[in-house]
Amino acid sequence: MPPVSHTRRRLLNHLALGAATLPLLRLSPAEAYDLQHLSPDDPAAKALHYVADAATIDAKSEPQYAAGSHCGNCALYHFSQARGDWASCDAFTTKFVNSKGWCLSYNTG
Ligand code: SF4
How many CB atoms sit inside 10 A of residue 41's CB? Predict the structure, then answer.
C-alpha cells in the first residue's frame, strides 16, 4: 500500500472532522417541525378553507365563520407545541397553523 501523502492525510482529517460535527448541525425534530407552516394553498388546507389570517375572511362567503374566532382560541390548537405564533392542531397535525388563522374545523371545545 503506498504511503498516504500529506495533502491526502489533511483531506481525510477534514472529512473525519466534518463527519463528527454533522450531528451538531442537525435540527431537533421540534425545530424541523417548526419550519413547516401550513400554506393556504396546501390541498388539505383548501379542503378545510384554512386561512392564515382570519381577519381576511369575508363572512358572506364563509357563513360558518364567526367574528372573533381564530386558531388561537380554537380548542384544537396545540399551545404546548407553539413556536411563536405557530402550532399544530388536531385538524393539521403535520404542519403548523398560525394562531390568527381559521378553518372549518374551528371548535370552541
Ligand atoms: S382546527 Fe382550529 S386550530 Fe386548527 S386550523 Fe382550524 S381553526 Fe385553526
Answer: 8
- Look at the pTM and tell me if it is higher than 0.90: no
Amino acid identity, position 67: A
Structural domains of the chain in order of their starting residue, each with its CATH number: 28-98 (4.10.490.10)
Cell of 73: 382560541
Q: Is the CB of 69 under 6 A from ligand 1?
A: no
Atom of ligand 1 nearest to the CA of 92: 4
Q: Which residue has the cell 388546507?
A: 45
49-85: per-residue pLDDT in tens?
Answer: 999 999 999 999 999 999 999 999 999 999 998 999 9
